[in-house]
Amino acid sequence: MKTSLDCIPCLLRQSLDAARLVSSSPSVHEQIVRDVLHWTAEMDLNQSPPAIAQRIHRLLRELTGVSDPYREAKDWQNRIAMELVPKFRAEVKSAKNPLLMAARLAIAGNVIDMGSNGNLTEADIQQSLSKALTEPFFGEEDRFQQAIAQAKSVLYLADNAGEIAFDQLLVEQIIKQVSPERVTLVVRGAPVLNDATLIDVQIVGIDRIVEVINNGSDAPGTILNDCSEEFRRRFAEADLIVAKGQGNFETLNNNPSNIFFLFKVKCAVIANLVNQPIGMQMLV
Amino acid sequence: MKTSLDCIPCLLRQSLDAARLVSSSPSVHEQIVRDVLHWTAEMDLNQSPPAIAQRIHRLLRELTGVSDPYREAKDWQNRIAMELVPKFRAEVKSAKNPLLMAARLAIAGNVIDMGSNGNLTEADIQQSLSKALTEPFFGEEDRFQQAIAQAKSVLYLADNAGEIAFDQLLVEQIIKQVSPERVTLVVRGAPVLNDATLIDVQIVGIDRIVEVINNGSDAPGTILNDCSEEFRRRFAEADLIVAKGQGNFETLNNNPSNIFFLFKVKCAVIANLVNQPIGMQMLV
């Protein structure tokens, strides 16, 4: 998708949140905000919002000299999510439809997004998960089940740290229907925001059940022409793609139809685009 | 007060709201947003937020060729407020303390602010007023009553259209204690946002009970060195100043102590400054 004018105030707010997270210096905060204002004044609105966010977070890392500013945040998100997962794994196991139950939990886990909520708390995570099965849901569940049942291979594009512990529940269900050797989890190629990278996968342990690769890019989404050649090949060859999170939706929503997007609607721009309210759990 | 970095995303959102209100052309919206991004990238943060908003709204008027873009909105705000006022005037009359009751209603009327809420509805206005007496209130009510009782002259700085119908209730109480000849209501010198100008005063009719002047400025606040010499003289000579709204607070909060500020807290920056939550009714 293109960037809406409405995205600009939000990207600025996100830049300021991020600046404050990684530096306590007001002059660094100001420099980041002014730089982002300069770029966005000239920005090409045909780019997707994650393309702008990618530039913002590169600048942030350059200015602060911190290569992974969200490392600490990601650690606690992984820890909290992993504490919650055993209880939810039991629920998936006893569910009438374990695949859909796991999909719902994986979508609920998408609340762990520091792009849309820089002040995320443990309570936010618990609330999203406890409401996962009662909150409104918009999705093509039947088509998703059929697609998984028929898929010869699945490329699962992860989104955030913490969230990937819930992705694991869904991956565990997918490999009951698709050979584990034909399921691949993809994370970002370098730290950006609290998006998951290889280290998060290792902490959570999904790499013990399926192959994990990175996409070679530091965008908080999947900008194909910014990804590695190897990733693009895998993307083109995949029989079915499961893409988690709004960032993957924003960058891939105009792509071919063998993709399912699983995410929570987090802003008015996306709410308007998908014609669903903020907070809605989407499987489309 | 100075402009906080947190004000910048909000000023941008306000620019976009305003652009959409006055023009249906996406290219005009984009031009306004890009111009505002350019300025804010270079802006002097020692200026107050209304100084930036003043520039934004000048540009808006220039680009669209509309001298009073909010005229229609102000007309319905005046109409709705005037419909509500008789009922509340009766409540003031029967109140134990009519001055404080009127002050609370005048503060509640400060919800009619299209800077903080571009999509203001009639329901928002009714809700704010119906909650005026039950919602939390932070104020120096005793000191305010004493100041009014002792004042030799009062300069009342109005804020928004519609809201001024509720200001009238307070002015009616003030002139019971201060000679009407010594009470002056001040409006903006030219249209900006939905701030009240002379025409709104005439529609509502406050000009029939006290003198009304304008401050010579088109800022949505009171930037003294941008106001007319005549206004500055009156400001300096006033025994007591009653300043309505966040814009007047943002521009005058570092001034001498003969000012009472009456407003609703509408954003996190002000909430942090006054150490009160958003929505709080303030009399300080």
Put the structure in a nutshell.
Two copies of one chain form a homodimer. By secondary structure, chain A is an alpha/beta fold.
Describe the structure.
- The structure is a homodimer of 284-residue chains.
- With 284 residues, chain A is α/β, with parallel strands linked by helices.
- Helices cover 51% and strands 11% of the residues of chain A.
- Chain A has helices at 7-22, 26-42, 49-64, 71-94, 98-108, 122-130, 141-150, 163-174, 198-204, 229-237, 245-252, 268-274, and strands at 137-139, 154-157, 183-187, 211-214, 240-244, 259-264, 281-283.
- Chain A has a 7-stranded mixed beta sheet, with helices on both faces.
- In chain A, helix 11 (245-252) links the parallel strand 5 (240-244) and strand 6 (259-264).
- In chain A, helix 2 runs antiparallel to helix 3 (49-64).
- The first copy, chain A, starts with 6 loop residues before the first helix and ends with a strand.
- The model of chain A has no long low-confidence stretch (mean pLDDT 93).
- The A-B interface holds A 5-6, 8-10, 12-13, 16, 29-30, 33-34, 37-38, 40-42, 45 and B 5-6, 8-10, 12-13, 16, 29-30, 33-34, 37-38, 40-42, 45.
Label this structure with key terms.
homodimer, 284 residues, alpha/beta, seven-stranded mixed sheet, 12 helices
The separation of the N and C termini of chain A measures 16 Å
Spatial strand arrangement across the major sheet of chain A: 1-7-6-5-2-3-4
Determine the strand fraction of chain A and express it as a percent band: 5-15%
N to C succession of SSEs of chain A: HHHHHHEHEHEHEHEHEHE
Low-confidence stretches of chain A: none
- Describe the biggest sheet of chain A? 7 strands, mixed
Q: Rg of chain A to the nearest angstrom?
A: 18 Å
By DSSP (H or I, 4+ residues per run), the number of helices of chain A equals: 12
**Number of strand segments of chain A:** 7
Largest interface: A-B, 18 and 18 residues
Range of helix content of chain A = 40-55%
Shape of chain A: globular
- Looking at how many chains there are and whether they match, the oligomeric state comes to homodimer
Structural class given helices, strands, pairing of chain A? alpha/beta
- Write down the overall mean pLDDT of chain A: 93
